[in-house]
Amino acid sequence: MVIYVAGLLHRVGAGLPGFLVESARSARTAFYKLVSPLDAWNRRRRGEGTLPPLWLRRHAGRVADFERPNAAWVSMLQTHGAIDRDDLTYLDVGCGPGALALALRSRLGPRSRYVGFDVHEPSIRWCSHAFGGDRRFEFELAGVASPYGNPAGESALTYRFPLGDAEASAVLARSVFTHLLEPEAAHYLREVRRVLASDGLAFISAFLFEGPGGRDEVPAFPFPNRTSHVRWRVGARPHAGVAYSREGFFDLVRAGNLRVLELRPGFLPGRSPQLTGQDLIVLSPFA
Ligand SMILES: C[S@@+](CC[C@H](N)C(=O)[O-])C[C@H]1O[C@@H](n2cnc3c(N)ncnc32)[C@H](O)[C@@H]1O
């Protein structure tokens, strides 16, 4: 019931004009900044480990989801032999304030390497400071034009990921294709292919709906704005939440010279009415 009411409220919010959407987001960030010291104090008091400040965790999505999906991702990496080896190079696309970096820290061998990039300067600043003494970790600010970073930056369509050709054993992109419109997603997939080693794998998440005849809507999590293959949640801020038809997304994957090795369905193609998460997709390069 609660999630259906949330869906209804979201439908109302999704139709708001741009300035109201942006003001609501700024007010939310200001609120989280205000209560961040309290959260940090409370975590210290309970002896909990170091996490980014609350407002940065909120930047990466629902606060409750900052650490929760890590187990599923680590298990997916394990299934595909992409963890616990000492010769791995990870590229974390849209790393945010470092949720996956923190999850991988104790599993990264001394000769392995993790490179994360994001358009959000405060997240990159926090990560660079938190991992500052650890030579295995590097973080780069991507100067890409984005509502999450510098709106006047370079086009995402020309951005080059910060790794050389075929350098990555594993590319990670958790909850990032959910913020890319079709041409950007197509370019990012081509970049994923460029940086992946021939035996490398990409682990990404997305909202994929099934399209005609299949499941294409969850009432509690509506995407009311749509073209045939792409949907977005907030009319005035399309990058806030983007979903693809499964068929349309897989076309982009193929056009990027990648293929789908595995799809773990989330709540759009799944059958559960619960919000159980995004679809997890494992990609490998075509020869
Ligand atoms: C939902 S958060 C996920 C963060 C992180 N991957 C995680 O799992 O916690 C989406 C992230 O993508 C970043 N982002 C949005 N557009 C981007 C782009 N074009 N290139 C790189 N990062 C982007 C945002 O700043 C944000 O940190």
Shape: globular
Oligomer: single chain
CATH class: Alpha Beta
Ligand catalogue? S-adenosylmethionine
Strand count, sense and barrel status of the largest sheet are: 10 strands, mixed
Tally of distinct domains? 1
Structural class: alpha/beta
Radius of gyration: 19 Å
Query: What's the mean pLDDT score?
Result: 89
Q: Approximately how much helix is present in the residues?
A: 25-40%
**CATH-assigned homologous superfamily:** Vaccinia Virus protein VP39
Distance between the termini: 49 Å
Count the DSSP helices. 8
CATH fold label? Rossmann fold
Q: Report low-confidence residues grouped into runs of 5 or more.
A: none
Molecular structure report:
With 287 residues, the chain is an alpha/beta fold. The chain has one domain: Vaccinia Virus protein VP39 (Rossmann fold), CATH 3.40.50. It is built from eight helices and ten strands. Strands 1, 2, 3, 4, 5, 6, 7, 8, 9 and 10 form a ten-stranded mixed β-sheet that branches. The longest helix is centred in the N-terminal third of the chain and has 28 residues, at 18-45. It binds S-adenosylmethionine (SAM). S-adenosylmethionine (SAM) binds next to helix 5. S-adenosylmethionine is lined by residues 59-61, 94-96, 99-100, 118-120, 123, 142, 144, 146, 148, 156, 174-176, 179-180.
